[in-house]
Amino acid sequence: MSAADVKTISKMADMAAIYIDEKELEIYASQLDEVIRYMEEIKSLDTDDEEPMEHILAVKNVFREDVVTGENIRDEFIKNTSIDEDGYFKVLAVVELI
Amino acid sequence: MSICKKTIIETAELLRSREIGAVELTKEYINQIKKKNPDINAYVTVCENEAIKAAETAQKLLDSNEDISYLCGVPTALKDNICTNNIRTTCASKMLENFLPPYSATVYNKLQKSGAVLLGKLNMDEFAMGSSSEHSIFGAVHNPWNTAYVAGGSSGGSAAAVAADLCAFSLGSDTGGSIRQPASFCGVVGLKPTYGLVSRLGLIAFASSLDQIGPMTKDVADCALIMNVIAGYDPMDSTSVKVQAVDYLDGLEREVDDLKIVLPREFFDSALDEDVKDIIMRALKDLESGGAILSECSLPSIKNAVPAYYIISSSEASSNLARFDGIRYGYRDENAKNISDLYRRSRSEGFGREVKRRILLGTYALSSGYQDELYKKALKVRSMISREFNNAFKKYDVIAAPTCPTVAFKLGEKLDDPLKMYLNDIYTVAVNLAGLPAISVPCGKDKNGLPVGIQLIGKPFGEKLLLNIAKMIEMKAGRLQIHEEKEDL
Predict the structure, then answer these.
(1) How much is the ipTM here?
(2) Residue of chain A with shortest Cα separation from B208
(3) Which of A89, B242, B288, B383 has fewest C-beta within 10 Å?
């Protein structure tokens, strides 16, 4: 049984919000199947006594005083969008009127 | 000898003694880039006007005779995933082809403050995902030692630019070997610092728990010098660590007594090319005759590092890259029918094939049904690897290993075989999982004249000792330099 078939990869592409056409899906599936099979080698390891390590450091929230430190650089941010209006990012309609 | 072949320290001396001016030096480098870059493809952006202006400012500082940094007037270039305010930062991706960062990375601010002159931005694997710098919308980077070969990746442009004398030094980023492997392939020095030592603010994220920025230089002293400038706590990076400042350059050539070096058997396995092994062992024997004690050990979990690394890094990448939706910045499809279609079209057209592969792999590892057996399992393997390293460091000062199993491979050789490409990272990824510092230093050339790097892995924040030992290796092996006539190729 393959680890990642076309159907599985198609589902992952949908979850990741990426379109992949049928021909490409087959290529991705065959490559990722080989990769995932290799990754799955760790499944057989005995790790019952191990704690998962998400981060190498003891990561904790970093707080600071709530004071303004920078300037308002809205224009700097806006200039990277391809469509803007009145200083706002413009998106396609999120709610459709019936 | 061309001025561009000189190290930072040599260049700084010439600038201070007025043997060359900062503007003249910058123009010299720009000419060099125009001449050589078409063959190497290390630069994706050259900012000539900005560089000349920065050089003029640096010259004023040099003329003021004030206490100035060694870097004042020294030309540099940055990997194109390090944000530079108003200078396009592309990650070698169509997604960010026109992205103008609204702020600069902390490391770039620090270099600017030291008076370094930014010549441009360097080619890489798209979003730093790759080991050959072939996955780039700007085309592959070519190895300056032999342009039919890859420069390594993902910081291939950063390594090639230093090796080809197209900048005095560069910065790269290392998530699973992306500084060390190209440094090894191109015959330059590359250091991956301890996780948290160098600020990640402004580094476009690939896998946040693994990414670190580090220097790529012509020699070890330059590497120490750059660490003096870029290391240190940054309140703007929540994973930045407060540690006492260290002068990495001070006492670089000192003798280290009773140095205990260990060679884990897993790093000298059947994947290691015999020629590479001989060159590495020669460098280690030199250290032994200098008084170091060499031992062998076993780090059994290392053999699981590649699967654990690709599961963890791809999972983090799939989450990090979810921010690219085509709205606030990045590529935006013009023909979308609705908002969901806009996200999907923009991502499908904006990301390249390898990036999509990693996103799919990460989505798979994090999805319901696979999360426990893949992602969580990989995190547990990460604990095992980290513990084995810690235990080794209770008995030994430093771990020595090859940086890569082979020298540079040919362009195109592994491009269509992702697994083969991933296995090239076999000796580098464990270091990132454990957050340790590691350096790659050139120690010789193989029978075809391609550079070989040796990797030294240290305790957390043990960069000073790594640089110290790297210097010893360099003094024996000599700096690798490309001769224009290529007489020794």
Answers:
(1) 0.94
(2) A55
(3) B242
